[in-house]
Amino acid sequence: MARKSGSSGEKTRAMVEEAATRLIARHGFAAVSMRQIAREVGVQAGALYLYTPDKQSLLKDIMRGHLQHLLESWAAQAPDPDLPAAARLERFVRFHIDYHILRAEKVFISYMELRNLDCDNFAEIERLRRSYEHILEEILISGAAEGVFHHTDTRLTTLAMIAMMTGVSTWYRDDGRLPPDAITTRYVDMAFRLAGGEPLAEAAE
Amino acid sequence: MARKSGSSGEKTRAMVEEAATRLIARHGFAAVSMRQIAREVGVQAGALYLYTPDKQSLLKDIMRGHLQHLLESWAAQAPDPDLPAAARLERFVRFHIDYHILRAEKVFISYMELRNLDCDNFAEIERLRRSYEHILEEILISGAAEGVFHHTDTRLTTLAMIAMMTGVSTWYRDDGRLPPDAITTRYVDMAFRLAGGEPLAEAAE
DNA sequence: GTCTATACACCGATAGAC
DNA sequence: GTCTATCGGTGTATAGAC
Protein backbone atom coordinates (compact mmCIF):
# COMPACT_ATOMS: atom_id res chain seq x y z
CA MET A 1 0.00 0.00 0.00
CA ALA A 2 1.98 2.96 1.22
CA ARG A 3 5.10 0.81 1.15
CA LYS A 4 7.68 1.58 -1.45
CA SER A 5 9.33 -1.79 -1.09
CA GLY A 6 8.33 -2.79 -4.61
CA SER A 7 10.53 -0.17 -6.19
CA SER A 8 13.69 -1.58 -4.67
CA GLY A 9 13.17 -4.99 -6.28
CA GLU A 10 13.99 -4.10 -9.88
CA LYS A 11 16.97 -2.11 -8.78
CA THR A 12 18.28 -5.00 -6.75
CA ARG A 13 17.70 -7.37 -9.65
CA ALA A 14 19.92 -5.22 -11.85
CA MET A 15 22.57 -5.05 -9.16
CA VAL A 16 22.54 -8.83 -8.81
CA GLU A 17 23.14 -9.32 -12.51
CA GLU A 18 25.82 -6.67 -12.57
CA ALA A 19 27.67 -8.11 -9.59
CA ALA A 20 27.36 -11.67 -10.86
CA THR A 21 28.70 -10.64 -14.26
CA ARG A 22 31.70 -8.89 -12.82
CA LEU A 23 32.59 -11.64 -10.35
CA ILE A 24 32.10 -14.52 -12.80
CA ALA A 25 34.14 -12.75 -15.48
CA ARG A 26 36.94 -12.30 -12.98
CA HIS A 27 36.98 -15.58 -11.09
CA GLY A 28 34.90 -18.03 -13.10
CA PHE A 29 31.41 -19.36 -12.44
CA ALA A 30 32.38 -22.28 -10.24
CA ALA A 31 34.70 -20.16 -8.13
CA VAL A 32 32.07 -17.56 -7.29
CA SER A 33 29.65 -18.25 -4.47
CA MET A 34 26.15 -16.94 -3.98
CA ARG A 35 27.36 -15.40 -0.74
CA GLN A 36 30.02 -13.39 -2.58
CA ILE A 37 27.46 -12.07 -5.04
CA ALA A 38 25.10 -11.18 -2.19
CA ARG A 39 27.86 -9.40 -0.29
CA GLU A 40 28.66 -7.34 -3.37
CA VAL A 41 25.01 -6.33 -3.77
CA GLY A 42 24.63 -5.64 -0.07
CA VAL A 43 21.99 -8.25 0.71
CA GLN A 44 22.00 -11.66 2.36
CA ALA A 45 22.53 -14.79 0.30
CA GLY A 46 18.97 -15.97 0.73
CA ALA A 47 17.63 -12.80 -0.86
CA LEU A 48 19.21 -13.72 -4.22
CA TYR A 49 16.67 -16.50 -4.61
CA LEU A 50 13.98 -13.89 -5.09
CA TYR A 51 15.59 -13.17 -8.46
CA THR A 52 16.82 -16.54 -9.65
CA PRO A 53 15.62 -20.10 -9.02
CA ASP A 54 19.22 -21.29 -8.70
CA LYS A 55 22.84 -20.42 -9.40
CA GLN A 56 23.05 -21.87 -12.88
CA SER A 57 20.02 -19.91 -14.08
CA LEU A 58 21.89 -16.78 -13.12
CA LEU A 59 24.66 -17.81 -15.53
CA LYS A 60 22.27 -18.83 -18.27
CA ASP A 61 20.38 -15.54 -18.02
CA ILE A 62 23.61 -13.56 -18.31
CA MET A 63 24.63 -15.52 -21.39
CA ARG A 64 21.23 -15.45 -23.04
CA GLY A 65 20.84 -11.77 -22.33
CA HIS A 66 24.24 -11.09 -23.85
CA LEU A 67 23.69 -13.12 -27.00
CA GLN A 68 20.18 -11.78 -27.55
CA HIS A 69 21.46 -8.25 -27.14
CA LEU A 70 24.32 -9.00 -29.54
CA LEU A 71 21.94 -10.34 -32.18
CA GLU A 72 19.47 -7.49 -31.70
CA SER A 73 22.23 -4.89 -31.88
CA TRP A 74 23.41 -6.35 -35.16
CA ALA A 75 19.86 -6.56 -36.51
CA ALA A 76 19.36 -2.90 -35.65
CA GLN A 77 22.35 -1.78 -37.67
CA ALA A 78 22.76 -4.59 -40.18
CA PRO A 79 23.57 -3.39 -43.68
CA ASP A 80 21.15 -3.89 -46.55
CA PRO A 81 21.56 -7.53 -47.72
CA ASP A 82 21.83 -6.20 -51.27
CA LEU A 83 24.99 -4.26 -50.51
CA PRO A 84 28.28 -5.74 -51.74
CA ALA A 85 29.69 -8.42 -49.43
CA ALA A 86 32.86 -6.39 -48.90
CA ALA A 87 30.91 -3.51 -47.38
CA ARG A 88 28.92 -5.90 -45.24
CA LEU A 89 32.07 -7.66 -44.01
CA GLU A 90 33.62 -4.40 -42.99
CA ARG A 91 30.46 -3.45 -41.13
CA PHE A 92 30.33 -6.82 -39.39
CA VAL A 93 33.96 -6.72 -38.29
CA ARG A 94 33.63 -3.18 -36.95
CA PHE A 95 30.48 -4.16 -35.13
CA HIS A 96 32.03 -7.29 -33.65
CA ILE A 97 35.26 -5.72 -32.43
CA ASP A 98 33.57 -2.61 -31.03
CA TYR A 99 30.98 -4.71 -29.25
CA HIS A 100 33.58 -7.10 -27.83
CA ILE A 101 35.73 -4.26 -26.54
CA LEU A 102 32.77 -2.48 -24.97
CA ARG A 103 31.21 -5.51 -23.35
CA ALA A 104 34.26 -7.63 -22.67
CA GLU A 105 32.93 -9.17 -19.47
CA LYS A 106 29.77 -10.71 -20.87
CA VAL A 107 31.59 -11.81 -24.02
CA PHE A 108 34.23 -13.49 -21.91
CA ILE A 109 31.63 -15.28 -19.77
CA SER A 110 29.62 -16.48 -22.75
CA TYR A 111 32.77 -17.92 -24.27
CA MET A 112 34.36 -19.44 -21.18
CA GLU A 113 31.52 -20.77 -19.10
CA LEU A 114 29.65 -22.88 -21.62
CA ARG A 115 30.73 -26.06 -19.89
CA ASN A 116 28.96 -25.01 -16.71
CA LEU A 117 25.58 -25.21 -18.38
CA ASP A 118 23.52 -28.36 -18.25
CA CYS A 119 22.36 -30.00 -21.44
CA ASP A 120 19.20 -27.98 -22.12
CA ASN A 121 20.70 -24.62 -21.24
CA PHE A 122 23.77 -25.37 -23.35
CA ALA A 123 21.63 -26.21 -26.36
CA GLU A 124 19.75 -22.92 -26.06
CA ILE A 125 22.90 -20.81 -25.78
CA GLU A 126 24.69 -22.76 -28.48
CA ARG A 127 21.80 -22.14 -30.86
CA LEU A 128 22.12 -18.38 -30.34
CA ARG A 129 25.89 -18.52 -30.83
CA ARG A 130 25.49 -20.48 -34.05
CA SER A 131 23.02 -18.03 -35.48
CA TYR A 132 25.55 -15.27 -34.88
CA GLU A 133 28.28 -17.23 -36.67
CA HIS A 134 25.89 -17.74 -39.58
CA ILE A 135 25.71 -14.00 -40.14
CA LEU A 136 29.42 -13.97 -40.96
CA GLU A 137 29.29 -17.23 -42.88
CA GLU A 138 26.54 -15.86 -45.11
CA ILE A 139 28.57 -12.73 -45.86
CA LEU A 140 31.57 -14.86 -46.82
CA ILE A 141 29.43 -17.03 -49.09
CA SER A 142 27.98 -13.95 -50.79
CA GLY A 143 31.44 -12.51 -51.28
CA ALA A 144 32.69 -15.71 -52.85
CA ALA A 145 29.66 -15.74 -55.18
CA GLU A 146 30.41 -12.14 -56.15
CA GLY A 147 33.99 -13.13 -56.85
CA VAL A 148 35.44 -10.60 -54.40
CA PHE A 149 36.42 -13.12 -51.69
CA HIS A 150 38.64 -16.10 -52.39
CA HIS A 151 38.71 -18.20 -49.23
CA THR A 152 39.37 -21.91 -49.56
CA ASP A 153 36.98 -23.20 -46.91
CA THR A 154 34.01 -21.07 -45.84
CA ARG A 155 33.28 -22.81 -42.55
CA LEU A 156 36.92 -22.84 -41.45
CA THR A 157 37.40 -19.22 -42.46
CA THR A 158 34.34 -18.30 -40.41
CA LEU A 159 35.65 -20.10 -37.35
CA ALA A 160 39.14 -18.67 -37.78
CA MET A 161 37.85 -15.12 -38.23
CA ILE A 162 35.55 -15.32 -35.21
CA ALA A 163 38.35 -16.76 -33.08
CA MET A 164 40.77 -14.11 -34.28
CA MET A 165 38.35 -11.26 -33.54
CA THR A 166 37.02 -12.58 -30.26
CA GLY A 167 40.57 -12.95 -29.02
CA VAL A 168 40.65 -9.18 -28.66
CA SER A 169 38.59 -9.40 -25.48
CA THR A 170 41.29 -11.55 -23.83
CA TRP A 171 44.00 -8.89 -24.02
CA TYR A 172 42.24 -5.54 -24.55
CA ARG A 173 42.86 -2.93 -21.86
CA ASP A 174 41.63 0.65 -21.77
CA ASP A 175 45.16 1.89 -21.24
CA GLY A 176 46.69 -0.31 -23.94
CA ARG A 177 48.97 0.66 -26.80
CA LEU A 178 46.21 1.32 -29.35
CA PRO A 179 42.90 3.16 -29.05
CA PRO A 180 39.81 1.08 -29.87
CA ASP A 181 39.23 2.57 -33.32
CA ALA A 182 42.80 1.81 -34.38
CA ILE A 183 42.39 -1.78 -33.25
CA THR A 184 39.12 -2.06 -35.14
CA THR A 185 40.63 -0.70 -38.34
CA ARG A 186 43.51 -3.16 -38.18
CA TYR A 187 41.14 -6.06 -37.64
CA VAL A 188 39.06 -4.99 -40.63
CA ASP A 189 42.25 -5.18 -42.64
CA MET A 190 43.12 -8.62 -41.29
CA ALA A 191 39.59 -9.92 -41.87
CA PHE A 192 39.83 -8.93 -45.54
CA ARG A 193 43.16 -10.69 -45.79
CA LEU A 194 41.65 -13.84 -44.33
CA ALA A 195 38.71 -13.71 -46.71
CA GLY A 196 41.10 -13.27 -49.60
CA GLY A 197 39.59 -9.98 -50.69
CA GLU A 198 40.84 -6.45 -51.29
CA PRO A 199 39.97 -4.08 -48.43
CA LEU A 200 37.70 -1.15 -49.15
CA ALA A 201 39.55 2.10 -49.78
CA GLU A 202 38.37 3.77 -46.60
CA ALA A 203 39.39 0.76 -44.49
CA ALA A 204 43.02 0.91 -45.58
CA GLU A 205 45.49 3.01 -43.69
CA MET B 1 42.35 -54.21 0.95
CA ALA B 2 44.04 -51.94 3.41
CA ARG B 3 46.62 -50.57 0.96
CA LYS B 4 48.39 -51.24 -2.28
CA SER B 5 51.74 -52.17 -0.84
CA GLY B 6 53.28 -52.86 -4.25
CA SER B 7 52.20 -49.70 -6.02
CA SER B 8 54.70 -47.21 -7.29
CA GLY B 9 54.82 -43.56 -6.41
CA GLU B 10 55.89 -42.43 -9.86
CA LYS B 11 53.08 -44.34 -11.46
CA THR B 12 50.57 -42.78 -9.10
CA ARG B 13 52.04 -39.35 -9.75
CA ALA B 14 51.46 -39.79 -13.46
CA MET B 15 47.91 -40.98 -12.85
CA VAL B 16 47.20 -37.97 -10.65
CA GLU B 17 48.34 -35.58 -13.36
CA GLU B 18 46.44 -37.44 -16.04
CA ALA B 19 43.21 -37.50 -14.04
CA ALA B 20 43.55 -33.87 -13.01
CA THR B 21 44.18 -32.82 -16.61
CA ARG B 22 41.15 -34.66 -17.92
CA LEU B 23 38.79 -33.45 -15.19
CA ILE B 24 39.97 -29.82 -15.25
CA ALA B 25 39.75 -29.67 -19.04
CA ARG B 26 36.21 -30.99 -18.84
CA HIS B 27 34.77 -29.13 -15.86
CA GLY B 28 37.16 -26.30 -15.06
CA PHE B 29 39.66 -25.99 -12.23
CA ALA B 30 37.34 -24.50 -9.64
CA ALA B 31 34.63 -27.06 -10.33
CA VAL B 32 36.90 -30.05 -9.78
CA SER B 33 37.52 -31.22 -6.23
CA MET B 34 40.50 -33.05 -4.83
CA ARG B 35 38.08 -35.82 -3.85
CA GLN B 36 37.03 -36.26 -7.48
CA ILE B 37 40.61 -36.48 -8.67
CA ALA B 38 41.45 -38.98 -5.93
CA ARG B 39 38.41 -41.11 -6.78
CA GLU B 40 39.50 -41.20 -10.43
CA VAL B 41 43.00 -42.33 -9.47
CA GLY B 42 41.73 -44.83 -6.95
CA VAL B 43 43.23 -43.34 -3.80
CA GLN B 44 41.95 -41.28 -0.91
CA ALA B 45 41.95 -37.50 -1.18
CA GLY B 46 44.62 -37.10 1.45
CA ALA B 47 47.04 -39.20 -0.58
CA LEU B 48 47.16 -36.55 -3.32
CA TYR B 49 49.13 -34.31 -1.01
CA LEU B 50 52.07 -36.67 -1.38
CA TYR B 51 52.41 -35.32 -4.93
CA THR B 52 51.41 -31.70 -4.62
CA PRO B 53 51.61 -29.18 -1.78
CA ASP B 54 48.14 -27.87 -2.67
CA LYS B 55 45.48 -27.79 -5.35
CA GLN B 56 46.73 -24.75 -7.21
CA SER B 57 50.23 -26.21 -7.60
CA LEU B 58 48.61 -29.12 -9.38
CA LEU B 59 47.22 -26.64 -11.93
CA LYS B 60 50.45 -24.70 -12.21
CA ASP B 61 52.46 -27.88 -12.76
CA ILE B 62 50.11 -28.99 -15.53
CA MET B 63 50.44 -25.61 -17.22
CA ARG B 64 54.16 -25.29 -16.78
CA GLY B 65 54.72 -28.85 -17.96
CA HIS B 66 52.63 -28.17 -21.02
CA LEU B 67 54.33 -24.91 -21.95
CA GLN B 68 57.82 -26.26 -21.31
CA HIS B 69 57.06 -29.29 -23.43
CA LEU B 70 55.64 -27.02 -26.13
CA LEU B 71 58.77 -24.87 -26.17
CA GLU B 72 61.10 -27.89 -26.08
CA SER B 73 59.19 -29.59 -28.88
CA TRP B 74 59.55 -26.50 -31.02
CA ALA B 75 63.23 -26.14 -30.16
CA ALA B 76 63.80 -29.76 -31.18
CA GLN B 77 62.37 -29.23 -34.64
CA ALA B 78 62.80 -25.51 -35.18
CA PRO B 79 63.99 -24.61 -38.66
CA ASP B 80 67.36 -23.03 -39.25
CA PRO B 81 67.05 -19.29 -38.43
CA ASP B 82 68.72 -18.55 -41.76
CA LEU B 83 65.91 -20.13 -43.73
CA PRO B 84 63.45 -17.76 -45.43
CA ALA B 85 60.72 -16.52 -43.10
CA ALA B 86 58.02 -18.03 -45.31
CA ALA B 87 59.40 -21.52 -44.78
CA ARG B 88 59.73 -20.90 -41.07
CA LEU B 89 56.16 -19.59 -40.83
CA GLU B 90 54.81 -22.67 -42.53
CA ARG B 91 56.78 -24.88 -40.17
CA PHE B 92 55.55 -22.94 -37.15
CA VAL B 93 51.89 -23.08 -38.17
CA ARG B 94 52.07 -26.80 -38.89
CA PHE B 95 53.77 -27.38 -35.57
CA HIS B 96 51.24 -25.27 -33.67
CA ILE B 97 48.10 -26.78 -35.18
CA ASP B 98 49.35 -30.35 -34.97
CA TYR B 99 50.41 -29.88 -31.38
CA HIS B 100 47.13 -28.24 -30.41
CA ILE B 101 45.07 -30.98 -32.00
CA LEU B 102 47.13 -33.70 -30.35
CA ARG B 103 47.20 -32.18 -26.89
CA ALA B 104 43.94 -30.31 -26.84
CA GLU B 105 43.28 -30.83 -23.13
CA LYS B 106 46.46 -29.24 -21.80
CA VAL B 107 46.28 -26.44 -24.36
CA PHE B 108 42.72 -25.73 -23.32
CA ILE B 109 43.63 -25.65 -19.63
CA SER B 110 46.63 -23.41 -20.19
CA TYR B 111 44.49 -20.80 -21.92
CA MET B 112 41.34 -21.04 -19.83
CA GLU B 113 42.57 -21.36 -16.28
CA LEU B 114 45.08 -18.54 -16.07
CA ARG B 115 42.85 -16.59 -13.75
CA ASN B 116 42.99 -19.36 -11.17
CA LEU B 117 46.69 -18.79 -10.63
CA ASP B 118 47.91 -16.47 -7.94
CA CYS B 119 50.20 -13.61 -8.79
CA ASP B 120 53.56 -15.42 -8.74
CA ASN B 121 52.35 -18.51 -10.55
CA PHE B 122 50.62 -16.38 -13.15
CA ALA B 123 53.80 -14.43 -13.81
CA GLU B 124 55.77 -17.62 -14.34
CA ILE B 125 53.24 -19.12 -16.75
CA GLU B 126 52.73 -15.84 -18.56
CA ARG B 127 56.46 -15.55 -19.14
CA LEU B 128 56.50 -18.96 -20.83
CA ARG B 129 53.48 -18.07 -22.94
CA ARG B 130 55.10 -14.83 -24.03
CA SER B 131 58.29 -16.52 -25.09
CA TYR B 132 56.23 -18.81 -27.29
CA GLU B 133 54.45 -15.85 -28.90
CA HIS B 134 57.83 -14.25 -29.53
CA ILE B 135 58.82 -17.15 -31.75
CA LEU B 136 56.02 -16.23 -34.14
CA GLU B 137 56.57 -12.51 -33.76
CA GLU B 138 60.23 -12.90 -34.71
CA ILE B 139 59.31 -14.87 -37.83
CA LEU B 140 56.86 -12.14 -38.87
CA ILE B 141 59.48 -9.45 -38.32
CA SER B 142 62.02 -11.38 -40.39
CA GLY B 143 59.49 -11.83 -43.17
CA ALA B 144 58.70 -8.14 -43.25
CA ALA B 145 62.42 -7.34 -43.39
CA GLU B 146 62.79 -9.77 -46.29
CA GLY B 147 59.89 -8.06 -48.01
CA VAL B 148 57.81 -11.24 -48.29
CA PHE B 149 55.29 -10.38 -45.54
CA HIS B 150 53.27 -7.18 -45.57
CA HIS B 151 51.39 -7.03 -42.28
CA THR B 152 50.43 -3.64 -40.91
CA ASP B 153 51.01 -4.29 -37.21
CA THR B 154 53.36 -7.06 -36.12
CA ARG B 155 52.16 -7.42 -32.55
CA LEU B 156 48.47 -7.42 -33.52
CA THR B 157 49.09 -9.87 -36.34
CA THR B 158 50.87 -12.16 -33.90
CA LEU B 159 48.00 -12.05 -31.43
CA ALA B 160 45.40 -12.51 -34.16
CA MET B 161 47.25 -15.46 -35.67
CA ILE B 162 47.76 -17.20 -32.33
CA ALA B 163 44.09 -16.68 -31.42
CA MET B 164 42.96 -17.95 -34.82
CA MET B 165 45.12 -21.07 -34.60
CA THR B 166 44.50 -21.86 -30.97
CA GLY B 167 40.76 -21.66 -31.61
CA VAL B 168 41.09 -25.02 -33.33
CA SER B 169 41.30 -26.77 -29.99
CA THR B 170 37.86 -25.43 -29.01
CA TRP B 171 36.01 -27.19 -31.82
CA TYR B 172 38.27 -29.99 -33.07
CA ARG B 173 36.83 -33.49 -32.83
CA ASP B 174 38.40 -36.72 -34.02
CA ASP B 175 35.29 -37.55 -36.00
CA GLY B 176 34.93 -34.08 -37.51
CA ARG B 177 34.48 -33.09 -41.13
CA LEU B 178 38.19 -32.72 -41.94
CA PRO B 179 41.19 -34.90 -41.08
CA PRO B 180 43.94 -33.16 -39.08
CA ASP B 181 46.33 -32.71 -42.01
CA ALA B 182 43.65 -31.02 -44.11
CA ILE B 183 42.91 -28.64 -41.24
CA THR B 184 46.60 -27.88 -40.85
CA THR B 185 47.05 -27.15 -44.55
CA ARG B 186 44.10 -24.75 -44.57
CA TYR B 187 45.47 -22.92 -41.54
CA VAL B 188 48.87 -22.58 -43.19
CA ASP B 189 47.05 -20.92 -46.07
CA MET B 190 45.14 -18.59 -43.74
CA ALA B 191 48.29 -17.71 -41.78
CA PHE B 192 50.01 -16.60 -44.99
CA ARG B 193 46.99 -14.50 -45.89
CA LEU B 194 47.12 -12.83 -42.48
CA ALA B 195 50.82 -12.13 -42.82
CA GLY B 196 50.24 -10.66 -46.25
CA GLY B 197 52.54 -13.10 -47.98
CA GLU B 198 52.29 -15.58 -50.81
CA PRO B 199 52.00 -19.17 -49.58
CA LEU B 200 54.76 -21.60 -50.52
CA ALA B 201 53.94 -23.74 -53.53
CA GLU B 202 53.70 -26.97 -51.57
CA ALA B 203 51.34 -25.40 -49.02
CA ALA B 204 48.77 -24.40 -51.61
CA GLU B 205 46.03 -26.79 -52.56
C1' DG C 1 53.01 -44.69 0.02
C1' DT C 2 48.59 -45.11 1.39
C1' DC C 3 45.25 -45.41 4.64
C1' DT C 4 41.42 -43.67 8.16
C1' DA C 5 39.72 -40.06 10.58
C1' DT C 6 38.87 -35.55 11.19
C1' DA C 7 39.14 -30.30 11.53
C1' DC C 8 36.53 -26.67 10.34
C1' DA C 9 35.09 -23.38 6.85
C1' DC C 10 32.06 -22.78 3.17
C1' DC C 11 28.64 -24.36 -0.22
C1' DG C 12 23.65 -23.90 -2.39
C1' DA C 13 19.31 -23.66 -1.01
C1' DT C 14 15.13 -23.28 2.14
C1' DA C 15 11.99 -21.73 6.12
C1' DG C 16 9.88 -18.46 8.53
C1' DA C 17 10.11 -13.88 11.16
C1' DC C 18 9.32 -9.08 10.26
C1' DG D 1 11.95 -7.59 0.05
C1' DT D 2 15.14 -8.70 3.13
C1' DC D 3 16.54 -10.71 7.21
C1' DT D 4 18.32 -14.60 10.41
C1' DA D 5 18.90 -19.27 11.14
C1' DT D 6 19.67 -23.52 9.55
C1' DC D 7 19.83 -27.90 6.66
C1' DG D 8 22.74 -31.49 4.63
C1' DG D 9 26.56 -31.74 2.04
C1' DT D 10 31.21 -30.80 0.29
C1' DG D 11 35.55 -28.16 0.15
C1' DT D 12 40.85 -28.23 1.15
C1' DA D 13 44.08 -29.81 3.97
C1' DT D 14 46.31 -32.23 8.04
C1' DA D 15 47.48 -35.91 11.70
C1' DG D 16 48.91 -40.15 12.72
C1' DA D 17 48.44 -45.37 12.11
C1' DC D 18 50.49 -49.08 9.42
From TrEMBL, chains A, B:
<dbReference type="InterPro" id="IPR050109">
    <property type="entry name" value="HTH-type_TetR-like_transc_reg"/>
</dbReference>
<keyword id="KW-0804">Transcription</keyword>
<protein>
    <submittedName>
        <fullName>TetR/AcrR family transcriptional regulator</fullName>
    </submittedName>
</protein>
<dbReference type="InterPro" id="IPR041490">
    <property type="entry name" value="KstR2_TetR_C"/>
</dbReference>
<keyword id="KW-0238">DNA-binding</keyword>
<dbReference type="InterPro" id="IPR009057">
    <property type="entry name" value="Homeodomain-like_sf"/>
</dbReference>
<dbReference type="InterPro" id="IPR036271">
    <property type="entry name" value="Tet_transcr_reg_TetR-rel_C_sf"/>
</dbReference>
<dbReference type="Pfam" id="PF00440">
    <property type="entry name" value="TetR_N"/>
</dbReference>
<dbReference type="InterPro" id="IPR001647">
    <property type="entry name" value="HTH_TetR"/>
</dbReference>
<dbReference type="GO" id="GO:0000976">
    <property type="term" value="F:transcription cis-regulatory region binding"/>
</dbReference>
<keyword id="KW-0805">Transcription regulation</keyword>
<dbReference type="Pfam" id="PF17932">
    <property type="entry name" value="TetR_C_24"/>
</dbReference>
<feature type="DNA-binding region" description="H-T-H motif">
    <location>
        <begin position="33"/>
        <end position="52"/>
    </location>
</feature>
<dbReference type="GO" id="GO:0003700">
    <property type="term" value="F:DNA-binding transcription factor activity"/>
</dbReference>
<feature type="domain" description="HTH tetR-type">
    <location>
        <begin position="10"/>
        <end position="70"/>
    </location>
</feature>
